Structures are given as structure tokens and as C-alpha cells.
Amino acid sequence: MYTNTFEEFFRITTNMVDENDYLKLSSILDIAQNIAGDHATELKIGFNEFIKKDLIWVLIRNKVEIVKNIHDPKIIKAVTYPLKPRFIEYPREVLLYVNDELICKIHQVWCIYNIKDNNVVSYKMDEYVSNHPSLFDGRVKKLTTSKDLTYIKSITIPYTYCDHNKHMNNTHYLDLYLDNYFVFNKVNIKSFQIEYLKQSFLFDQIDIYAKKEMCIHKMIGKKGDDNIFYLEVYY
């Protein structure tokens, strides 16, 4: 019997689906991020508990496999559980269901960030223990950023993209992708992985570069000489 599992239901609103009534990629991440936060709160290691210690949870990687695209979903059941921590990495997985049919698998990698000392820290937590095996083959490793990407455009981070951590919310990077390549939301996207390399803040300018290779679409966001995020979409 697996331990430390958390379950929650989400009502899908009109802003969570695209023009064809399919769940947006950013909505997948939004649900996964919300249930991870709710589970952390349930375990007494959530935002309110951590901020008192100058700590916040920071998501550094998302790997998503889309098992089945469901048209016009109304209610999604999300199930999450932590995996075994690895030094400063705290992975967890999230499964999404419609009518008990698995539609999506998400592997997240979280770190704990000390906002006072401005660094990532290791934090021993008995609460972050379970005996769940990963549904992904092996460790979900960091993507290696590609070169020779073509400049697409520059965007300025608006107020509505920021969350209570005072930075651009992780889900909106997938909105940046679809805003520039909306046609790919109409084909069969099989999976995607995104690396969050540095934080973006209100009014930051991000330069977007992209490249298509066979059935992979790659995108990188840069702020000056710094890489902010890196994304690969497989279809």
C-alpha cells in the first residue's frame, strides 16, 4: 500500500481551456502546482509555514506526458505524492484523471529557497516521505539548452503574470509558448519539459528564441545574458 497520497478535485473554468475547448498546457501546470501546494499545506510544510523561516518552495523542472486529450473537461481529479528527496531536490508526481481515466502524468522537481540568504538549501523533512515509485523511466534530468535558436520577439512581464512569491508564475511560460505557436495547440502534443533557470519579475524584459527540429519544438527565454527558462515540446 502506497503512503502519503493526496487527492483533490478541480472544476475546469472557461479560461482554463483553449478556443477548441481542450485543456491548455498552462492549466495542466496550474492544477499540478496547486495540488502540490495544497498537499504541502496539509503536511504543515506549505507557504505559510515556510515563509516564517524565510523559505519558499521553488519549482525548477516540469516534465509532462499527455496520455489523452479530453474535449471540454468539466471536473478533473488530481492525485499527488512525493518521491524520495535527492539532496536539494524534492520531486513529486501528479496524475490527472477525467471520469477515472488517466489523461496526464506530471513529474515535478522542487527546491527550497532561502529568500534571506538568496540560495537553495537542503531541509530535512520527515513529512516528505512516501514509498511511491516514479511513473517516469529513471530520473527526469535537466535539459541541455540548444544553440542556434532564432530570435522571435521580446516581452515585458505584466502584472497579471506575477504570483505571491513576487515573480512570474511558472505556468505562464507555457502561455508564452502558445501565444507564439498557437497552431501547435491544435495538433497532438505528446509531452513537454520545461526548466526554470532564473526568476522573472514584474516589468522584466525577456527575449524569446526558438527552433523546430523534426517533431521537437525548442524555446528559450533570456534576460540579458542570463537564460530564464528552457522548453522542449514533443508532438
Q: Could you explain how this protein is built, in words?
A:
The protein has 235 residues and is mainly beta. Helices cover 14% and strands 39% of the residues. Strands 1, 2, 3, 4, 5, 6, 7, 8, 9, 10 and 11 form an eleven-stranded antiparallel beta sheet that branches.
Helix fraction bin: 10-25%
- The sequence of SSEs as H and E is EHHEEEEEEHEEEE
What is the CA-based Rg, rounded? 17 Å
Structural class: mainly beta
User: What's the total helix number?
Assistant: 3
User: Quick check: average pLDDT?
Assistant: 89
- The count of β-strands is 11
Strand composition percent: 35-45%
Task: Detail the poorly predicted runs.
Answer: none
Molecular shape: globular
Main sheet attributes: strand count, strand direction, barrel closure: 11 strands, antiparallel
Distance between the termini: 35 Å
Task: Describe, in short, the structure shown.
Helix content is 14%, strand content 39%. It has 235 residues and is mainly beta.
List the main descriptive attributes of the protein structure presented here.
11-stranded antiparallel β-sheet; 235 residues; 3 helices
Task: Break the fold down into its secondary structure elements and pairings.
Layout lengths: L5 E6 L13 H18 L4 H5 L3 E12 L8 E8 L7 E9 L2 E14 L4 E3 L28 E7 L15 H9 L10 E6 L8 E9 L2 E8 L2 E9 L1
Antiparallel strand pairs: 1-3, 2-5, 2-8, 3-4, 4-5, 5-6, 7-9, 8-11, 9-10, 10-11
